[in-house]
Amino acid sequence: MKKNLLLTGLTFLGLAFLETIINQFLLKGIYTELNGLWRTSEELGNLAPIFMLIYLVVSLGFASIFLRAYAGGGILEGVKIGFMIGVISRFWYAYTNFIVLPIPHTLAIQWFLFGLIEMMLLGMVCAMLVDKLAKKA
Known about the structure:
The structure is a single chain. This protein is 85% helix and 0% strand. The protein has helices at 2-26, 28-33, 41-46, 48-69, 75-100, 105-136. It is mainly alpha-helical and 137 residues long. It contains six helices and no strands. The protein has one domain (2-136).
């Protein structure tokens, strides 16, 4: 239970940080080009609690899946688990939105690839934490 809470918290913070980097910096240009498609800054600000809920739900799921899949194989195994979670979740997200929203294919590809890297980084960090906790036990 302690590991799950620690991984959930770590994943939550990681998601918040990485999502900010991806969406506020790396994709800012393409989002600006599609300005009329998105909610206003004020609307997004009002919906910020929903972002936190999304991060919490994803973090709980990621931590639970990670702990069930991780066999103590180190950073590379953590990256592989993150890769598997990323392929499933980010491919679905990127291409469902590509079908539903009038966005360029390049944005769907970037959502998928950045999201995949994000999940792999989270897997790597989770492996490092679990291994560190195992050494202390």
